[in-house]
């Protein structure tokens, strides 16, 4: 199988439009990690993503009759742009079905390349369903984003370039994984020629479909998929990619949102490129691999797969970067409610640590509850040592550094508290973000329960995040959650979350 794919990769038609992108040395990251780190710069492609390779190669293999029908695809962005550009170069009409939540920057980029855009549904699955309906009705030729041998071969040219750009020993290549087309192509070529090189897949922890398939030994469908890294938000690994991945991918590493944000910053500092979260995924995996294994003095290569991100989203990425780098601790600390308490608290923290955030509102005559961000060192046990120092000084401390409720909402909610007899229940929601989405959310929420708290902030992401307090009579919670289940928004009950109990209850 590998020999067949290597032949297809060597014959792939990509360079009519795609570039042979450079392999850039990441000097800062190399020094930090005590390894030679290189970044494959697919963000420099004409569509700012590797997807042009597979899309163009697939188009080049179509018959004239298939091209004359026009091509169609469902995509949330990068494949859409690649196909639109390929179709324009070949003079073929292209239709792209995109979810309504697709960032406007991607919609406009597809239209600018001459493709017709149809916005349909709130998720990729609905867009795909509509695209296949149009194939049946109109006879379009469907061009898949990853589950196709010619697409895989186009992406595999990245592996070919890496090996001739860096003929010296390579310990591992880190590849972002969505549907699996990229890692399958890279693995096929590299493992055929250099089987000693590790191929390590990197997935967002809330869309880890390859990891789930590797553990089960078969493809599985995830119940839910996170969309922060929308470029890899896929519920099931592709059938064709998995035929390769199950035997030739050495390991799969999963990454959280904060770690991705930190990697966006890392790539910027070494290359001045602003990667999208899925583009920075592989570097985040590389960093975690070094941390977990302690490996040093080796060559590690990661693929920056794309740079199509909304400018509005950068604020959210910047907020989470320090947490992802483990350079900031978020703590809830009780301090005496009297003059000079904050000064004494800062003395315990010490001069070498900077307070990055401080939220407080008077609530109790005896003790103040503060929400505080404190700069810590990313290596070693600095956060644990800080907490130990505060406990030694008899400050009650709760570590909120990994608490999503605290990071998304509580830090913006310094205010009053709810009386203990209010019957308040707290729920955190995610809903598709588009014009009118917040009003639609409120309409779905119903009118049977009084809203006692509401926090929403637009991060420029595909999904909005809302914190809601509902005053629910005793015994009615099961009825409420039955109703919430029907509106089909992801939600979490957060009433018992310590961040809520400490700051808003």
Could you describe the 3D structure shown?
The chain has 4 domains: about 1-50 and about 150-320, 3-Layer(aba) Sandwich (Rossmann fold); about 50-140, Rossmann fold (3-Layer(aba) Sandwich); about 325-400, ACT domain (Alpha-Beta Plaits, 2-Layer Sandwich), CATH 3.30.70; about 420-505, Biosynthetic Threonine Deaminase, domain 3, CATH 3.40.1020. It starts with a helix and ends with a helix. The protein is an alpha/beta fold and about 500 residues long. It has a 6-stranded mixed β-sheet with strand order 1-2-10-7-8-9, with helices on both faces. The model has no long low-confidence stretch (mean pLDDT about 90). The chain is globular and about 80 Å long. It has 20 helices and 18 strands. This is L-threonine dehydratase. One of its GO terms (molecular function) is L-serine ammonia-lyase activity. Pfam families: PALP, Thr_dehydrat_C.
Please give the structural blueprint.
Blueprint: H1 2-10, E1 23-25, H2 27-33, E2 36-41, H3 51-61, H4 64-68, E3 71-74, H5 78-90, E4 94-98, H6 104-112, E5 116-119, H7 124-138, E6 141-142, H8 149-165, E7 172-176, H9 181-193, E8 198-204, H10 209-216, H11 239-248, E9 251-255, H12 257-271, H13 277-293, E10 299-304, H14 314-324, E11 328-336, H15 341-349, E12 355-359, E13 367-375, H16 382-392, E14 397-399, H17 404-408, E15 424-432, H18 437-445, E16 450-457, E17 463-471, H19 477-486, E18 490-493, H20 498-503
Parallel strand pairs: 2-10, 3-4, 3-6, 4-5, 7-8, 7-10, 8-9
Antiparallel strand pairs: 1-2, 11-13, 11-14, 12-13, 15-17, 15-18, 16-17
Helix pairs in contact: 1-8, 1-9, 3-5, 3-8, 5-6, 8-9, 9-11, 12-13, 12-14
